[in-house]
Design brief:
A 6-stranded parallel beta sheet has the order 9-8-7-10-11-12, sandwiched between helices. A 4-stranded parallel beta sheet has the order 3-4-5-6. It has a two-stranded parallel sheet with strand order 1-2. It is elongated, with a radius of gyration of 21 Å. The chain is an alpha/beta fold and 351 residues long. The protein has 14 helices and 12 strands.
Length: 351
């Protein structure tokens, strides 16, 4: 299992690893000691082999030089692991951690299966596209980056609780869920705060559930308490499916994990892509949802309190439109992604 650093790489790979283990296989991870895999993988009771490698994208000359210096040794170490463990296939979520084990596998002729959850493949996946055995994607348009016949739209593994959420009937109060991810988003936090007086003055029967991130929580909570708007600001939402269940509309960034959860839950959304995401992949994800009629797009530099208020008020006044957006989002969901990834790995490894 190759791919680490962030939750977006590690968590889906863990879902596939759990499925493989349940099928009687013996998955292990290759990662670094500073990535999230160093915490999450041992917690799952799965082996983690450490390599020394850094990033190549959006880093300075010093980091680039260090990574290029580390690459041969870490690739050799990964090759030794593949040989000593009798690896039948490598599964990659991309990211810089995936580079050494994937290169080592390709050199040895070991089948490589990648999962590319974004509309535009990341740096590693783009550069190995011609050589992978299979590419599991979330958007049909991503297939153009890979050789014909090697892609399959499987989606990204998402917790089953999201798929189980029933459609939300219209209620007396319109509930808006705002989440900028576990660390929060300064743009969404600022725009939300600017919008509170406008919602208050409008008389719209509104409730806001806002995950702010821990850094901004105290200041935002105190200001929200004085705003006169119903709802709550919390630093982190532990049970995100339960929060989605309460929401009529979701405002979030458009990373692969976020849009996969929106689709699985069948929720209409306002997507505001993180502007510094590599290769603008969050913007491309959001655009795919807009084309499908599942979301509204408000780019980061246009996300103001006024724009947020006007967009929410417009959507809240159109229940039929929200219902169509919800159906379009649900149509983009892909249940069973981890199971299908495990099946594909078995196929290429001839298990």
């Amino acid at each position: 299992m190759a791919g680490g650093g962030t939750g977006g790489h590690v968590i889906p790979a863990l879902a596939v690893a759990r499925e493989l283990r349940a099928r009687g296989h013996f998955p292990f991870f290759v990662g670094t000691e500073r990535g999230l895999e160093a915490t999450l993988v041992p917690r799952e009771g799965l082996p983690l082999e450490l390599v020394r490698i850094g990033g190549l994208k959006r880093v300075g000359l010093r980091q680039t030089a260090a990574t290029l210096f580390q690459l041969p040794a870490s690739t050799w170490e990964s090759g030794q692991l593949i040989e000593s463990r009798g690896v039948a296939a490598v599964f990659s979520m991309g990211g810089y951690v995936a580079g050494p084990p994937v290169i080592a596998a390709l050199v040895r002729g070991t089948p490589v299966v990648i999962m590319e959850p974004n509309a535009v493949p990341g740096f590693t996946n783009r550069h190995i596209a011609m050589y992978v055995r299979r590419a599991l994607v979330s958007f049909p348009e991503t297939a153009r980056y890979f050789p014909f016949g090697r892609t399959e739209v499987t989606g990204l593994p998402v917790r089953e609780e999201f798929f189980a959420l029933p459609p939300r009937p219209p209620g007396e109060r319109f509930t808006l869920l705002i989440t900028g991810g576990s660390q929060g988003s300064r743009t969404l936090n600022r725009a939300a705060r600017e919008s509170w007086p406008l919602f208050r003055q409008s008389g719209l029967a509104l409730q806001i559930i806002h995950q702010s991130g821990r850094q901004a929580y105290e200041e935002l909570r105190a200001a929200f308490a004085e705003s006169g708007v119903e709802g709550e600001v919390v630093p982190f939402i532990t049970d995100m499916p339960a929060a989605f269940a309460q929401a009529d509309l979701v405002l979030c960034r458009s990373g692969a994990g976020a849009v996969a959860e929106v689709a699985a839950a069948g929720k209409p959304s306002i997507l505001s892509p993180f502007p510094f995401a590599a290769d603008q992949h969050q913007l491309r994800n959001a655009e795919a949802f807009v084309r499908a009629g599942a979301a509204r797009l408000v780019e980061d530099d246009g996300m103001t309190g006024v724009r947020l208020f006007e967009t929410v008020a417009e959507l809240a006044a159109d229940p039929a439109g929200l219902e169509r957006m919800a159906a379009a989002a649900r149509a983009m969901a892909h249940p069973g992604a981890a199971r299908r990834a495990a099946e594909v790995l078995e196929e290429v490894a001839h298990c």
